[in-house]
Amino acid sequence: MASTLLSRQLTHTLQQNLKFSLTRCRYISQPANKGDVDVEFDGPLMKTEVPGPRSRELMKKLSEFQNVGAVNFFCDYEESRGNYLVDVDGNRMLDLYTQISSIPIGYNHPALIKVLQNPHNVSTFINRPALGCLPPEDYVQRLSESLLSVAPKGLKQVQTMSCGSCSNENAFKAACIWYRNKQRGEVIHTKEELESCMINQAPGSPDITILSFMGGFHGRTFGCLTATHSKAVHKLDIPAFDWPTAPFPKLKYPLDEFVRENSEEEARCLEEVEDLIEKYGKKGRNVAAIIIEPIQSEGGDNHASDDFFRKLRDVAKKHGCAFLCDEVQTGGGATGKFWAHEHWGLDDPADIVTFSKKLLSGGYFYKDELRPDMPYRIFNTWLGDPSKNLMFSEVLNVIRGEKLLDNVNASGKVLFNGLKELQVLYPHILSRARGKGTFCSIDAPDETVRNQLVLQMRNKGIVLGGCGEKSIRFRPTLVFRPHHAHLFLNVFNDVLGAHK
After folding, report:
1. Where residue 500 falls among pLDDT bands split at 50, 70, 90?
2. Catalytic residue list contains 381
3. In this structure, which of 9, 162, 344, 352 has its CB flanked by the most CB atoms within 10 Å?
4. Is 357 a catalytic residue?
């Protein structure tokens, strides 16, 4: 009884302290800098529930010719600014989901508008070339100034693509080509290989595999779906390859209270990876590559320690597998470093790093030895989009000029600490706060409560996203400032306090 009363008293005290600190933050937050003032609103402004009448009307019309089950609401992108997304009913919402983590510096950023208004750029936006055959004159310079200027450590080659799925799909192909050429040595392709691949048979279509992890998400194309294990709806009714799937560590939180248990869990998963590589090897189905996300995003924002990834990298080297790091969602600065794998502290972190989302198009960086041995082996019509690369070059200018990685770390500290305080105040609703930079998440008791919270927050003017079975994920822009984090925490506190 005494412990129960003490617990209630502590909870009441924490609630009062948080209310005081959060309310105060509304008034003492530092004003936005000049670049933000030009584009930002003062805060959310709600006129209707979401979706409102205009959104519902448009959903009804759209449903006449496609499935609209995933549509949340229709947007007015012309009116959206900075961290605020405006819908077609005039509701203005602070966006902490940003088009599934793909808006780097906010809506309608003035620097990007200037790129569009520059008459020298008109041709780039109008004429989309088949880059593999007919690249524009300034293409080498543009790549050097943009993508290659942020190339991961040890990777000097880059292949552009259009989206995350095709980035990973072609990275798989590059790894398989590299692996087979390594097996052949100096021997060129045989007549038998050239003929058998045309009827999907060995040896031209080899029985090699890609190892992936439970909870991982790598895209929705055929190879990517085989390596994806986040939700059944993604995979149902689609044929899949017989590729090995290893367990991803299921860490217990708070991390500092479960050091031994989490270390044992990671060791178990690493042991299973090696067992699978050896098992498939004995069946003549060698593992050509291992693919993993630095943080499993769609699968539930699942983390592992830096030590786990360092050891996994060693396992890949030991068994001669290419190591593919999928940074489609984690890349671009949201974790406080431009690449999430930088947190591992490795000199040789990966053989291939894939990207998309915040980098505005897609593609992958890779080591010299993974360069295709012939043309057209990694190929499609567009191979990316020079106009998106032009925009990304300006995004990098803004990131560097405004020191946005520093901002991510400052805002992330406010966001993460606030989430940890809220889970203490509402332990029956929230748990397992986790994150790096602003790349944060927290768990609800179940999917139903998670979805209720996301909807309630949306109707209060905050856009959030879900992931995994019951997680809420936060994916704000790089210009999400500490005062935006305080604003969010105030609203979240109110919604949690009223939640039944």
Report:
1. confident
2. yes
3. 352
4. yes
What is the pLDDT, as a whole number, of residue 39?
A: 59
- Residue 274 three-state SS: helix
Instruction: Answer yes or no: pTM beyond 0.85.
Output: yes
Q: Reply yes or no on whether 217 is catalytic.
A: yes
CA 196 from centre of chain: 38
List % helix, strand, coil for the chain (3-state, nearest 5): 45, 15, 40
| Interatomic CA distance for residues 256 and 299, integer angstroms | 23
Q: Report the candidate in 72, 70, 73, 92 with the shortest Cα–Cα distance to residue 83.
A: 92
Smallest Cα–Cα separation from 468: which of 249, 217, 226, 103? 217
Q: Which of 74, 217, 248, 308 is catalytic?
A: 217
Q: C-alpha angle 231/235/241, rounded to 5°?
A: 125
- Summarised one tens digit per residue, pLDDT across range 18-63 is 443 443 333 233 333 434 444 589 999 999 999 999 999 999 999 9
Alpha carbon of residue 49 to chain centroid: 29
- Hey, is 295 helix, strand or coil? coil
Structure confidence by residue, pLDDT tens digits, 356-415: 999 999 999 999 999 999 999 999 999 999 999 999 999 999 999 999 999 999 999 999
Instruction: Single out the catalytic residue among 326, 351, 385, 443.
Output: 326
* Residue-wise burial string across 138-148, b where 16 or more C-beta atoms lie within 10 A, e elsewhere: ebeebbebbbe
Question: Is the preceding omega at residue 386 within 30 degrees of 0, hence cis?
Answer: no
Set 172, 228, 323, 357: catalytic member? 357
Tokens of 137: 């004159």
Active site residue 326: yes
